[in-house]
Design goal:
This protein is mainly alpha-helical and about 90 residues long. Helices cover about 40% and strands about 0% of the residues. The chain has 3 helices and no strands. The two termini are about 20 Å apart.
């Protein structure tokens, strides 16, 4: 989580862990830590990537997409560095 928060902070985005929501269906459905299957739910404030009416892509869409890509890459690097990690797991 710290790695993802660092990526967001470096992009000037304020982060909150489990606030105001603590995850739910997505994590319950896809995570199974006991079997080595971990899941992370990332939520972006719509104002980062939508227009002021929050119903069309806005000026921040490209930057938000780049941030998400950076977050994916950083967590993948970390996961693949773990002992026993298998690609595409």
């Amino acid at each position: 989580m710290h790695r993802l928060e660092s990526e967001a902070t470096a992009a000037g985005i304020v982060t909150a862990l489990n606030t105001p929501y603590a995850g739910g269906h997505v994590l319950d459905r896809h995570a199974h830590p006991g079997a080595g299957v971990h899941a992370i739910q990332i939520e972006f404030d719509r104002s980062l990537y939508l227009d002021p009416a929050l119903d069309q892509p806005g000026d921040g869409l490209a930057a938000t997409a780049r941030l998400l890509r950076q977050m994916i890459d950083s967590i993948a690097d970390e996961a693949l560095a773990l002992p026993g990690a298998i690609a595409a797991e």
